[in-house]
């Protein structure tokens, strides 16, 4: 499965962006899809994930209530809607897919396929 993340850009604090993770070479509905981010000088961190088939989501506390993950299986795409963006949300965002269960989806090692990343910059 090949993943391509897109939709990043420059946005003012309080604004919104929607990231897309498009899959090819496989059906994304059968995978748990996670979003991770890495800010300059910091470790990669879990943002959220959506369970295979059911789409049940899981979010990091730092984004809960502001970010929403959704799937469009017909388009083989997973979205990350980001609202009320904050300066600390500035990072390169990566999507990943794996045959992992939701309870372990916070751990990057359980994902087999990664997109190339898309940069989100939030200006204060």
Short description:
The chain has 124 residues and is mainly beta.
Commentary on this structure:
The structure is a single chain. Helix content is 0%, strand content 49%. With 124 residues, the chain is mostly beta strands. Strand 4 (32-38) and strand 5 form a beta hairpin. It starts with a strand and ends with a strand. The mean pLDDT is 95.
Low-confidence stretches: none
Strand content: over 45%
The structure class reads mainly beta
Distance between the termini: 37 Å
Please give the count of helices.
0
Q: Helix coverage percent of residues?
A: under 10%
Q: Over all CA atoms, what is the radius of gyration?
A: 13 Å
**Shape annotation:** globular
Can you count the beta strands? 11
Mean pLDDT level = 95
Descriptive labels:
single chain; 124 residues; mainly beta; 7-stranded mixed beta sheet
Topology:
Blueprint: E1 2-6, E2 9-12, E3 17-24, E4 32-38, E5 45-50, E6 57-59, E7 67-72, E8 77-82, E9 91-98, E10 113-114, E11 118-123
Parallel strand pairs: 2-11
Antiparallel strand pairs: 1-3, 3-8, 4-5, 4-9, 5-6, 7-8, 9-10, 9-11
């Amino acid at each position: 499965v090949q993943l391509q993340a897109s939709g990043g850009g420059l946005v003012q604090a309080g604004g919104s962006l929607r990231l897309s993770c498009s899959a090819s070479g496989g059906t994304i509905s059968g995978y748990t899809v996670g979003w991770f981010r890495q800010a300059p000088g910091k470790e990669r961190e879990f943002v959220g994930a959506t369970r295979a088939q059911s789409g049940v989501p899981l979010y990091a506390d730092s984004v809960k209530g502001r970010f929403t993950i959704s799937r469009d299986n017909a388009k083989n795409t997973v979205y990350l809607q980001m609202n009320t963006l904050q300066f600390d949300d500035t990072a390169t965002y990566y999507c990943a897919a794996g045959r992992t269960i939701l309870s372990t989806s916070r751990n990057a090692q359980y994902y087999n396929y990664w997109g190339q990343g898309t940069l989100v910059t939030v200006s204060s």
